[in-house]
Amino acid sequence: MKKASNLLLSKFNRQRSIKAAPLLSRAYIFENSPSSSSSSQFHSTGRHLQCCAKTRGLIFKLHQFQTNPSRNLNTLRKLREKSDLEEAFESGKTSGEMFRVFKDMEACEDPEKALSFADRALKVLDQDGKPSLLVAVALQLMGSVSYGLKRFNDSLGYLNKANRLLGRLEEEGIANVENIRPVLHAVQLELGNVKTAMGRREEALLNFKKALEIKEMTLGKDSKELGVGYRDLAEAYVSVLNFKEALPFSLKALEIHRKGLGHNSVEVAHDRRILGVIFTRMEEHEKALEQNQLSQRVLKNWGLSSELLRAEIDAANMQIALGKYDEAINTLKSIVQQTEKDTLCHWEKFADSKRCLEIACGNLDKKETVSPIEVAEAYCEISMLYENMNEFETAISLLKRTLAILEKRPQEQQSEGGVSARTGWLLLLKGEVPQAIPYLENAVEKLKDSFGSRHFGVGYIYNNLGAAYLELDRPQSATQIFAVAKDILDVSLGPHHADSIETCQNLSKAYSAMGSYTLAIEFQQRVIDAWEGH
Question: Which residue intervals correspond to the TPR repeats (predicted)?
Answer without folding.
Answer: 185-218, 376-409
